Amino acid sequence: MSTRQEWNHQPDVPIQVSPLWQWPPQPYAVFRWYWDSWFFLTINMTILGLAGMSYLWLSPALATAHALSFDWVATIFARNAVLLICVAGGLHLWFHTYAKQGTHLKYDPRPFPRMGRMYTFDGQLRDNITWSLASGVTVWSGLEVLVWWAMANGYAPTLIWADNPLWFVAVFFLIPIWESFYFYWIHRLLHTNAFYRFHALHHRNTDVGPWSGLSMHPVEHMLFFGTIILHFLLPTHPLHLIFHLMYYALFAVTTHTGFEALWFRNQKRANLGTFHHQIHHRYFECNYGSLDVPWDKLFGSFHDGTTEGKDRMRARLAARKRT
């Protein structure tokens, strides 16, 4: 079966990583890559806007977070739950319940969601929603509360705008780079024999939808949102913390829509799912990281979406079985 026959939609291949890591240097391509990732109607900027509103209206003051109390802790849990329901639920309604763009730009030709005994309550959508809310929101919010409390009590270094405006802004751009590093190695760990029994829950989804992004075992959620360790290592502001965790949570939702982009009125409005990660859900043992930093290329696990890329993956897995 050719690669074209495997997919309902396949973007241009071979898949390209960030031009920042390509030689010879391509300054304009690097500028376009990062500009298109951030400005202006982009997922990154939307998450930053949501983080800003959450910080202003739905978060405690640091002085309040000095002591745990039901009011501010419950506010964080409720805020994150409602946000996930609105984003994942809204995207599911658009792409799958009402199928507003049909199968246009959908990667996998199979219908979503599916039924089967492998899923909680025998259904993929019920499975995904249950794990995303019951475990995902709980771990996400619990770890956010932990860092709020740690910042308020001096256990995590803090930063305000007046201290260093340049660093304050730079942290927002650093977080996706950190994500690329952290997620790659955590993901490789989850594919080891010791941890795959937990990660297998997420890989029930060989075809994905918005609720699949955070459908994970609690152990995987702890590792996934363990990215907050950054805030114990570097001085940051609570706004960075909110953005960081929202970036992890909501980016998981948008990149698992199963569609390359939101298409409305004959125009691409927002880039969403990546073919790079869709291939991972099809074949499992490749493309563990993201395209911002080429960890998969460096460590031989890159599948570039071509037939030759699949052949290289199969040869690598066959060699691994022989050792």
Q: Can you walk me through this structure?
A:
The chain has one domain. Helices cover 54% and strands 2% of the residues. The protein contains 13 helices and two strands. Strands 1-2 form a two-stranded antiparallel sheet. Strand 1 (261-263) and strand 2 (268-271) form a beta hairpin.
Topology, pairings included?
Elements: H1 3-6, H2 27-38, H3 43-57, H4 70-97, H5 124-152, H6 165-190, H7 196-199, H8 218-224, H9 230-233, H10 238-255, E1 261-263, E2 268-271, H11 275-283, H12 295-298, H13 307-322
Which key terms come to mind for this protein?
single chain, two-stranded antiparallel ribbon, 323 residues, 13 helices, mainly alpha, globular
Provide a quick synopsis of the model.
The protein is mainly alpha-helical and 323 residues long. It has helices spanning 3-6, 27-38, 43-57, 70-97, 124-152, 165-190, 196-199, 218-224, 230-233, 238-255, 275-283, 295-298, 307-322; strands at 261-263, 268-271.
- Percent strand equals under 5%
Number of helical elements = 13
Residue runs with pLDDT of under 50 for 5 or more positions: none
Q: What is the strand tally?
A: 2
Class of secondary structure makeup: mainly alpha
Major β-sheet strand ordering:
1-2
The arrangement of helices and strands along the chain is HHHHHHHHHHEEHHH
Rg over CA atoms: 20 Å
Distance between the termini: 28 Å
The largest pleated sheet is described as:
2 strands, antiparallel
Let me know the average pLDDT.
Answer: 95
Q: What's the helical proportion of residues?
A: 40-55%
| CA-based shape | globular
* Total discrete domains: 1
